[in-house]
Amino acid sequence: MRGRSFYWCRSCRQPLYATSFPAIPAGWDWEIDHQQPGDCANGHLMPLTGTATVPEDLPNAARVLFVLGS
To answer: pLDDT digits over 4-21, tens only?
Structure first.
């Protein structure tokens, strides 16, 4: 992440949590999901997981993530 970013779901507009751990050889292993369970049109894409430098580079990130911050 560049600075501090906050992630919201593009579909239901609810806040998301993001956790990450260093991945070998490079990047981060990410898991992103809704903070609270509920109905969401993007529910079938969650949790958003994978290895990337930033969450915005994960598969389906453009369909799911609304990013606030840097």
So the answer is: 789 999 999 999 999 999
Terminal alpha carbon distance of the chain = 8
**Which residue spans within 1-70 are E strands per DSSP?**
5-9, 16-22, 28-34, 48-52, 65-69
State how far Cα 59 lies from the chain centre: 10
Give the integer Cα–Cα distance in Å for 35 and 38: 10
Quote the longest CA-to-CA distance of the chain. Answer: 37
Token pair for residue 6? 């906050």
Average pLDDT of the residues in 22-49: 94
